[in-house]
Design brief:
The protein is built from two helices and eight strands, in the order βαβαββββββ. By secondary structure, it is mainly β. The strands form two sheets. Strands 2, 3, 4, 5 and 6 form a five-stranded antiparallel β-sheet that branches. Strands 1-8-7 form a three-stranded antiparallel β-sheet, with no helix packed on it.
Length: 141
């Protein structure tokens, strides 16, 4: 099995995984909307791998969306001692599909964008962390 990785250099990343027996953490829709509002090109974005119909259900409160390394990771990317968030987002469908990586920090209860990158590939697996290289990688297999 040959897995292709696209690497996005960044400062550092902390992968948070719930231990066994811990309650599942779910995405907060208002947090998502605040993050999405940071850039005009994300106005119609949804979490990666969430179909438009699923997104509609989530917005209507009929679907819970677990936080996972498929869509988001939390870490101190800019080394200021506060947690930041890396988020994979998609817009459009078919030939209009676009994939983005947003990295943001929360300051005084509001989100500020650290980085927004349009990603040139069409499918993703999970966000990965390499602490030695201080690199955020995206599994594209």
């Amino acid at each position: 099995m040959n897995r292709a990785l696209k690497v996005v250099p960044f400062l550092s990343l902390l992968l948070l995984v719930p231990a066994r027996g811990e309650d599942q953490v779910y995405w907060d829709l208002e947090t998502f909307r605040s993050l999405r509002a940071l850039a005009s090109e994300l106005a119609e974005a949804r979490p990666v791998s969430l179909a438009p119909a699923g997104f509609t259900l989530w917005e209507a409160g009929q679907l819970k969306l677990p936080e996972s390394s498929v869509t988001t990771l939390v870490g101190d990317f800019n080394r200021d001692g506060r947690p930041d968030r890396a988020v994979l987002l998609e817009t459009g469908e078919g030939k209009n599909f676009k994939l983005f990586l947003l990295i943001a920090t929360q300051s005084k209860k509001r989100w500020e964008m650290l980085s927004l990158r349009h990603l040139e590939f069409r499918s993703v697996g999970i966000l990965l962390w390499d602490p030695g290289r201080k690199t955020l990688a995206i599994d594209t297999n």
